[in-house]
Amino acid sequence: GFKAYAPRAFRRLRALCGIDDDSYVRSLGPDQVLASLLRGSLNSVSELESEGKSGSFFYFSSDSRFLLKTISRAEMTFVRAI
Fold this sequence. Notes:
Layout: H1 7-16, H2 21-28, H3 30-38, E1 45-47, E2 58-61, E3 67-69, H4 73-81
Antiparallel strand pairs: 1-2, 2-3
């Protein structure tokens, strides 16, 4: 699983981009993960072939609508301070 940092801030950012909560949850939420498991697959997200310069990994949602990035604790602290 993953942890969403600053969920209210990113929810607001998604809203500004015209992405509603239902659309986001359909792409990344537990229903998507459960559907993948029921199909015998773990394809609810797919990893890009290379990691970023920072050592972070990038993942696409299975419908390719969203890009997820892993972050270090130092990055998380920095982002939360913004």
